[in-house]
Design brief:
The complex is a heterodimer of chains A (187) and B (214).
Chain A lengths: L2 H17 L15 H12 L1 H16 L13 H4 L3 H20 L6 H28 L3 H8 L4 H21 L6 H6 L2
Helix pairs in contact in A: 1-2, 1-3, 2-3, 2-5, 2-6, 2-8, 3-5, 5-6, 6-7, 6-8
Chain B lengths: L11 H4 L2 H17 L3 H18 L4 H10 L1 H14 L2 H23 L3 H12 L9 H31 L6 H29 L8 H6 L1
Helix pairs in contact in B: 2-6, 3-6, 4-6, 5-6, 7-8, 8-9
Classes of the chains: A mainly alpha (187), B mainly alpha (214).
């Protein structure tokens, strides 16, 4: 891996951290934050491999004790808590978004990007997050789905559009993902 | 922006190796889920408090802040369990969660970030087999830590520039008009940093490895 890729990975880990300092809206236990916006951006700007590693690096920073999650949570506690599943799903979400973005790179636009972000940034995250929430907190499926997913979907849809819009601007002014032909073999 | 949660003290807990503390934390989590009784969770909570407040001499406020971060969780667990199963189960689940959160807080407030990074590098050592270089992982961690304050400062500068031109946009528009230019700037910055690193030999294996071999 080139030093440049390493710097991009570190940069997006930092971006997710800074997005956590934007004011979070508390609705019950799981806060609405701008951090999943960062996860979507990592995938759609850096691609699958680097996006995955950027989010993983961010989680490593949280795990080693930095209060980088929204509302100043940090350390190992969030990885054992009821919302741990969401954290574990983030790198996967970035990878899925990155993979789909790379595959559609030459005809990427805001609408397509939004669809990709919804699939990777919403479907994947809740597919992991809600079952973990249910298991750790001992909730029923309906309560877990309501308190752990339904209230966030509107905000997530907004974030999916915003992330796609930003990714499209970056794609045209400073593309990081290379043409698919090269991206596949790039190390 | 103060980043670390670390609280310096001269205590036995602080002196324990970071890897051992992390291992203890993992064992505690497994035990708490394997012994699902209120007594076990209560005893573990008492133990964690003794280790944190008495042995490590952490200020009560430090642990209280970590507990406050999960207070809505605890409350929600109690309410949901009181409504769906029974209050006792709610108390047990909440107690277990609080214990784990506080135990993790004790580990992170008694261990320096640099020690944790060293543990990360050591944990990554077996990944050498698949081509991961632990020193590069350490470099990525260090770079990210340096980028965080830089990004915060740049975001503020863009906000100021917009305010000077007649007020900063709010809501979704702010994300688009602030984050997009910030992102392009930041990508250029990261590229410049990587070139500077390569110019100083960051892309070659440290020569130390060669010295050891000879």
């Amino acid at each position: 891996m080139k030093t440049r890729d390493l710097a991009y990975i570190a940069l997006f880990a930092a971006i997710i951290a800074v997005l956590g300092t934007l004011p979070a809206i508390n609705v019950g236990p799981v806060p609405i934050t701008a951090q999943t916006l960062g996860v979507m951006l990592a995938g759609s700007v850096l691609g699958a491999r680097r996006g995955f590693l950027a989010v993983l690096l961010f989680l490593v920073l949280v795990a080693v004790g930095l209060p980088l999650l929204a509302s100043g949570a940090g350390g190992l506690a969030p990885f054992a808590g009821a919302s741990a599943g969401y954290l574990y799903s983030w790198p996967v979400a970035a990878a899925v978004i990155g993979w789909l973005t790379e595959r559609t790179w030459t005809r990427y636009n805001v609408v397509l990007g939004t669809l990709i972000n919804v699939l990777g940034g919403i479907v994947v995250i809740y597919a992991v997050g809600v079952p973990v929430l249910k298991a750790v907190a001992g909730l029923s499926w309906s309560t877990a789905l309501w308190s752990g997913a339904a209230v966030f979907i509107p905000g997530d849809l907004v974030k999916a559009v915003v992330a796609a819009a930003i990714a499209d601007v970056v794609r045209r002014s400073y593309p990081v993902i290379e043409r698919p032909r090269r991206a596949v073999g790039a190390r | 922006m103060t980043l670390a949660l670390y609280v310096p003290r001269a205590s036995a807990v602080h002196r324990l190796p970071a890897g051992l503390k992390l291992l203890c934390l993992a064992v505690l989590a497994v035990v708490l889920f394997a012994l699902p009784t209120i007594a076990a969770a209560g005893a573990a909570l008492a133990g964690v408090l003794v280790v944190g407040l008495v042995v490590a001499r952490l200020p009560v406020a430090v642990l209280a802040r970590q507990a406050r971060a999960v207070r809505w969780w605890l409350l929600a667990l109690l309410v949901v369990h009181a409504l769906t199963t029974d209050l006792l189960t709610g108390v047990h689940v909440a107690l277990r969660l609080l214990t784990l959160v506080l135990a993790a807080a004790v580990v992170t407030t008694t261990t320096r970030v640099s020690e944790m990074v060293a543990v990360v590098e050591r944990v990554c050592a077996p990944l050498r087999l698949v081509g991961v270089r632990p020193a590069r992982v350490g470099l990525a961690v260090t770079l990210a830590l340096r980028f965080i304050p830089v990004l915060t400062e740049r975001a503020e500068r863009i906000r100021d520039a917009q305010a000077a031109r007649g007020g900063s946009p709010r809501g979704v528009r702010a994300l688009r008009t602030t984050v997009a230019p910030l992102l392009v700037q930041a990508l250029q910055m990261a590229h410049d940093v990587s070139e500077a690193l390569d110019a100083r030999g960051a892309d070659v294996e440290p020569p130390r490895a060669a010295w050891r071999r000879s």
